[in-house]
Amino acid sequence: MKQEKVKKQIIEAANVRFEKYGYGKTTMAEIARDCGMTAGNLYRYFPGKADIITEIAQGCFVGRLDVLKKASKSSDCLETVLGNMVIANLEYMHGIFSQQVHIHELIEFITGQRRELLQQHMTDVKTVIAGIVQKGVESGEFVSNDPMRTAETFFNANIKFFAPHFMVIFPLEELKREAGDVVVLLINGLKKR
Questions:
Q1: Are residue 12 and residue 55 in the same domain, yes or no?
Q2: Which of 9, 118, 130, 156 is the Cys-Cys partner for 151 at CB 3.0 to 4.6 Å?
Q3: Confidence band, pLDDT 50/70/90 cuts, at residue 110
Q4: Is there a contact between 31 and 14 (Cβ–Cβ < 8 Å)?
Q5: Do 90 and 155 have their domain in common?
């Protein structure tokens, strides 16, 4: 229990420092000092900065997956569920990343050194979408011979609204409007005629 509390404190301190100075300009000694511990003690919890940033990324992935799963459990029609899920994801991602000046460093690190985590996360996201498509097929709302492939297409068509680097470029309202238009177009293609 104490170990988890200390790890959480380290993650929070590192996140503050990464946001302010960037990943590359932050040292383990600075993170340790921010936590009121020695660098040697910090290394007992995390072998290096890469492990800390991985933990931060995993926290973002878990948070987003929770948002998507919650949105997918709505009792609305599945067309609305898909649209609400994209908007809920967008609001979550924009809230986290729009204020982070150094977000590109996190993205570069994860895509370059922890690609398997990102790939697994994208598979998890597509699986949630595929579950909605499958329900739509079963209820007769949607037509799809392969719900996972349909989910991959849906995800790829919405990548601008799932990728964190777009969160620092565009205002949330603009992204929400565009996402709504893309979702309507995709759902019209999925609807049973």
A1: no
A2: 130
A3: confident
A4: yes
A5: yes
